[in-house]
Design goal:
The chain is an alpha+beta fold. 27% of the residues lie in helices and 45% in strands. The chain has a single domain (9-107), classed as Nuclear Transport Factor 2, Chain: A. It has helices spanning 9-19, 23-29, 45-56, and strands spanning 30-38, 41-44, 63-72, 75-83, 88-98, 101-107. A six-stranded mixed beta sheet has the order 2-1-6-5-4-3.
Length: 111
């Protein structure tokens, strides 16, 4: 991740956990009720987040590089580059954080 991109701590921790292939750190970035929404498929709670990490992120050898970011209130929208055995390319990601943890991470279908 570029040091030039300034993002809230939970977003930074999300990227760092993916790039370090650290599933437990990744899961702990999320609030217990947190969720990942990947193109309309929703993974809820720590078990769901762990499942997504195993199938689409860490388990797929993912590397994530933030290209740009804007934050308004609790919402951070990023443009990122993703490399894995599942998907390669640029996408948009929307993070919502509260009390130092992620409530949601969404990759909209129109990325």
């Amino acid at each position: 991740m570029s040091d030039v991109i300034d993002v809230p701590a939970p977003v930074r921790a999300f990227v760092e956990a993916i790039n370090a292939a650290d599933t437990e750190a990744f899961v702990q970035v999320f609030a217990p009720e947190g969720a990942v929404d990947d193109w309309g498929t929703r993974y809820t709670g720590h078990d769901g987040v762990r499942r997504w990490a195993g199938s689409d992120a860490i388990g797929a050898g993912a590397r994530m590089t933030l290209l740009s970011a804007t934050t308004e209130g609790d919402t951070t929208t990023v443009r990122f580059d993703w490399r894995s055995r599942v998907f390669n390319g640029e996408s948009t990601g929307i993070f919502v954080s509260r009390d130092g943890r992620l409530v949601s991470f969404t990759i909209p279908p129109e990325h």
